[in-house]
Every structure is written in C-alpha cells, then in structure tokens.
Amino acid sequence: ALDIGHDLGRAILNARTFEREHHLVRELRALDDYKGRMISTVAHELKNPLASVRGHLDLLELADELSEESRGWLAALDRGAQRMGRVIDDLLLLARVGEAGHPLVARPVDLRQVVADAVDVVALTASRKGVLLHVDLPAHPVTALGDADEIDRVCVNLLSNAVKYTREGGSVTVDLALAGDQAVLTCSDQGIGISAGDQERIGTEFFRSTNPEAVAESGTGLGLAIVRRVIDRHHGHLEIESELGRGSTFRVRLPAA
Ligand code: ADP
C-alpha cells in the first residue's frame, strides 16, 4: 500500500511539473511571437520615412549650386541612409523567416546560380580589400528545394562575412557539391576566426563577438541569425568549424531536390 501511495505521489508530481513546463513553453512562444511582431511593425514604420529621406537626398544631389564640400556631406548622408535601409531589410526578413513568419514556399532552386549571384554581390568589396575569391562550381546542376530569395540571402550573408572578417591579402573559398541527398555549400575563409565560446552563441539574434578585430567591423548580429532561421525552416543543417586567428568554415547542408 505504501508503494502504491508513493508511486501515485510521484505520478502527480510529474504531471504537475509537466503542466508547469508546458505552460512555460506556451508563454515563451507567445513572447517570441510578440517580439517578432514588434520588430516587424517598427521596421515597417521606419521604412517609409527612410524612403522619403532617400528621395530628397536624390533631389538635393541634382542641384547645380552645391559646393564640393556639400556634395561630400550628401554622399555621407546617402551612405548612412543606405546602411539604415539594409538594417531595416534585415529586420523585416528576420521577422518573415521567424516562427510566426510566413510559411515557406519551396521550389527547385539551382544553387550554382544562387552562388554565382552572391559572388557578384561581394566581388567588388573583396577586390577593394585585396581578398581573393576562389569559387568552385560543379558542371552539373545542384538543386535544392526551397525559397530562392532566402537561400540567396544565406549565401550573400556567409560570403560577405567571410570577406568582412578576412584580413587584406587573405582568401575566401566557396564550394558547392552534391553529397547523397544533400546539397552542400561550403564557405571557408582565412580570417580572424571565432572562439569556441562565441561559436556556441553565433546565430543568436544581435549576437556579435567581443573579439576586438570583429568589433572593429560594423555590423548588427542579424546576418547569421537570418542564416540559421532560413536553414532551419528548409530542414537543413549549419556546421561551423573555426579557430581564432586561422579562419572559419561554414558548411550548409540543404535537402537536394
Ligand atoms: P555582423 O553584422 O556582426 O557581421 P553576423 O550575424 O553576420 O553579424 O555575425 C555575428 C558575429 O559572428 C560577427 O559579429 C562576428 O563576430 C562573427 N562572425 C561571423 N562570420 C564570421 C567569419 N567568417 N569569421 C569570423 N567571425 C565571424
């Protein structure tokens, strides 16, 4: 009788713990949902005034009577507005690919094209910085099932980070291959690397490394959060290998179509 009473007591305790945990999970989901909606609303509200600022900057640039100095100030304003626009776009995308965001519409995507487009985006920055880009694309199509724009952002974010966090004269290698039922995209750099502690937190929204060399570069900590979420919703995997001072390899595995 004692045993039965004891077992019953434990069962009740377990049920209560389960209920409490269930409640906590629901609350956390609701909070995450709220955060996603807040980010998206704020970003939307910032988009219109910024478009107006950029429109007026364009008009000012057309004026004839501007001095060289004023043109310099306008160019600086324009760069600031462009950067603001990129942060807003990142916030909107983050909300879109988040849990409460839009469902994924998956279509076959030839990753060779996506990688080639992403290389075009970073090529100018890389050459200005003296970073060599090696691109190895197979002769046959490597097709993943997913959203082309989202996968494109994964490639652009990984590649631009690789270029950004590599010192002048270093190199970045992009490689694409089919491995069984997976499309594998590998982006390696000989850059500043990421400590083991930071590797665990990387991809968390707004996380930036405290490594002084990384801090010296401007950024928001949104790029890899987007990468992670997009890969998750495509049922893929992200692997990171990195050593401080030696470089990093980011490997993306996506289900092949
Ligand atoms: P950020 O806008 O700061 O670049 P990300 O989300 O793209 O944001 O990256 C988060 C952090 O991860 C960066 O601040 C940087 O410290 C680190 N990181 C990302 N990619 C690399 C890389 N290829 N090499 C070294 N550090 C990197």
UniProtKB/TrEMBL annotation:
<protein>
    <recommendedName>
        <fullName>histidine kinase</fullName>
    </recommendedName>
</protein>
<feature type="domain" description="Histidine kinase">
    <location>
        <begin position="41"/>
        <end position="257"/>
    </location>
</feature>
